[in-house]
Please model this.
Amino acid sequence: MKRFLFYLFVVLMTLLVACSGDDVETGNEEPSDESTEESNENEEQSNDQEGNSEEKITLRMSWWGSQNRHDMTNEIIDLYEEKNPHITIQAEFTGFDGYFEKMAAQASGNNLPDIMQQNFGEYVNQYASQDLLEDLGPYVENGTINLEGVSETIIESGKVDGKLVGIPTGTNALVATYLPNAFEEAGIEPPTNDWTWEDYVNIATEYHEKTGDYGVRLAEPGNMFEYYVREKGLSLFNEDGTGLGYDDDKLLEDYFTMVKGLIDDGVSPGYDVIQQIKGLEDELIVRGETPLDPTNWSNQVGTIEKAAGEPVEMAVLPGENNDQGMFLKPSMLWSIGKNSEHKEEAAKFINFFTNTVAVFEIIGSDRGVPIQPGVREALLPDLSELDQKVYDYVDYVSENSSPADSNFPPEASEVISHLEDIDEMVMYGQMSPAEGAAQFRQNAESVFGQ
Amino acid sequence: MNIRKTYRHLNIRDKIFTLSIVLLVIFTITRIATFNYVTSMYEERIYQESSNTLELFSTILDNELQKVENLSFQISTDDTIQRYLDSRTSDLIDYEDYMRRTSFLLRLRSYAFSEQYLSSIQIYDKQGGNYLSGFGSNVERERMASLLKGSNGENIWFHSESENKIMAARIIRKKENVLLDHLGILVITIDMDQLMNQWVALSPNRFIVTKDQQVIYRNNNLDIGVRLFTKEKLRKGYAIETVNNHDFMVSYKPSRYSNLTYYNFLPYDYITDQTAWINKVMMFSFLFMLLITMILSKKAASLITRPLEGLTRKMKKVQKGDFTGTHIAMDQHGQDEVSQLHVNFQVMMDRINKLIKENYEKQLIIKETEYKALQAQVNPHFLYNTLDSINWFARIHKQEKISMLTESLAHLLRNILSKKEPLITVDDELDIVKDYMTIQQHRFRDRLHFSLDYEIGVGKYLIPKLTIQPMVENAIQHALEQMLEPCYISVTLKKQNNLLIIMIEDNGPGIDIETISDIFKGKVKSKGSGIGIYNIHERINLMFGTAYGVQVDNTMDKGTRIKITLPFMDK
Model:
């Protein structure tokens, strides 16, 4: 009997050890997937056709814009990361001021982001001429980026010297935004699409006299003078990009005189006021300090109306020949830095951004009207009132405009920066409009002469 | 001791049952203890992991916050910025002012872009001007002013009401000539989400950062109240907390650098669920085993006790004197100890039964023999007295021969019957032989010639009673009665070496060799009442050893010679 008990004891001990051994094993298995959430993630990955085997990739992506745009873009990034768990997108965003300074610094360190927002015109030309941007042509050809159905003009706008270096997120147009309620209160007729430069000055002045507020926001010369020149049937740069596109300095002198007149009369604020504006949401029109702002782009209207909290209406820019001055601009190109290590993945993201209806459901008209007709059509039935307004405006401009200038030489941004500096001096009375116009030509020619 | 006593009083069935239950309980307790030990070890290990993560996390954050503080110091002492703030006197500005402010703002912007997680850099000047680079966030100026009071230009951390933004604020003081004039307030806002994404984006953990018991950062929308984070609760360095029906392992670490505390929430649902599940399984398995043990121990106990009870029943029966019927309920199968007990008991009972039977039969024989002997004792005395009477009648009537015959017969009978001892002297034995021969001489007359020859002094030795007489009787039966001529029978006694030799010879037909060997194998039965050769031989062997005994010499056609070898035996 004793011996039997001994055996029994031994057997029980063995069982005990075996059982507890099991526990230890199962215990060790669990922690390997540290949380249920993580294991869920793993499941998602394995469900994803190609997700599991792919290595984790981090893409850097930069853009400029308002806080509103950042929020919406981050939402789109979340959506993409959710669908592509192996991709992490590291966002770098700033306001437009300083964006290209930052990019310039990154370019000098050969550290441009994988996906970067580029600006049509002087900037994209500048970066392309330095061979900093990847040729996207092959990605379109092999179908990574699907541009089927996109109008040839728009694709053309992403090309520099025949190389496709950027895919526009949408199309835009310059717009004069105004507050209809403010004009109504003041008893003044708001702008119409056929207003002249005289109307422009008169409306602003009348409003200022009646209310004491600013009648119009100060227009910086960058976009405004380019339009002004186009409206006169000329262009800022000559066709082969080797000099200015106008010969008579009177043109710029008149422009300076008009703008300075508004400042001197107190109709329009000076640079010190403009300098203090902290982003689109802080604009004078948003704060109700002026009812008219001729410096916006159609894609900004959404943000402005949201921030202003009252209806914002749109008119094309003034001038008898404004149908000639107005142009459709491909807004905000997506480019891939030449130094990127994940160009294929960056291209996939651009394709996602271009061809996904959900993206534009999030971002609305903030990045312009989608370039893909399919996406546009899918969006039409559910457009918000505001987005509908923007779409209508862009449609109007597309029928009442001339093609955008694409002959920006690489020196363009430097030339424009000179124009801005001189404008500041003229507005502060450091020099007369005539002196300023002559000085600009001199500066521009020295830039081209380099 | 009491338990032992109680235990001893239990019957086997209860003993086995109790023992099994005790073993089961020990087993279960050991199991639970082991499980708990492993769980706690495991927990400790996870805590280590969590704590390592937290360590890394807090080091990174501390570094970044230190960096921001350094940046704040750098901005507040920047020459351009100090100069601009100092020169600022009124809102009316000319071109020079505008350009100075432009370069001031550019400087501010370049600082703001130095790190992506810097959401904004703001400066409030003493005229109430507000300069911002980056994306503005609402700063509660009054709260900030009260926090900055008495800070003497030192950096102060605080957070906005909207979460996930923390701010570093500092009074900018004039450094020129150590005038320390108040030039403005610098506020750097950190976007914690961005900071986390940048540094710890891949971690599945959830972090919370608190300052003065207020949450200033939480990720993954972790809805956890501040009340949880009492130092007591986290005495071990960690605790398991339930939040919104989810379990987390919470570990914490105070910042070495600022008065922030970092918490790491590790999802723990899976583990607690599993622990609970295992506990449940162990509980059920215990109950199940309990049931099995109860059934099996009962079964095992009855397997042992039932045969024992059967055995006890049998023994009780035997106790009452019933020796029959012990074969009932005998377990044919089984080789265990109890079955062996059964078999042994059976064998023992069989043996006892056999002994009883033998003893009983022996007693019967003894009784019968005693009775026969009594009968036999009556007859010789009666016969002897009668022979005496006949002798006296013959003497009276002068019948000499009859008198002699009856006298010899009477002598013979008396000698045979009266000598009770097994050993008698040679003289006594020879008297019997002489008496016997006297009677036979009268019967056979001339046909019988008897001669007796012995050495002087032999008569005093002892020999077994009736050693010689049966031999002589044999000789008369087998030799004399088979022949017509006169038969010579001689008895010779002599001493040879240390032996007493007795020779009985006749000149009869002899005995063939086969008959002799048959005699010594005890196969030949003596005729009539006589005592056979074999019998005498055996008696001598038993009394003196095998060196002595009877020897038959076959002298075919010349008679038979029987030689008896005996030791000398004195009285």
Remarks:
- The domain at 422-567 of chain B is CATH 3.30.565.10 (Heat Shock Protein 90).
- Chain B touches chain A through 47 residues (CB under 8 Å).
- Chain B is about 50% helix and 20% strand.
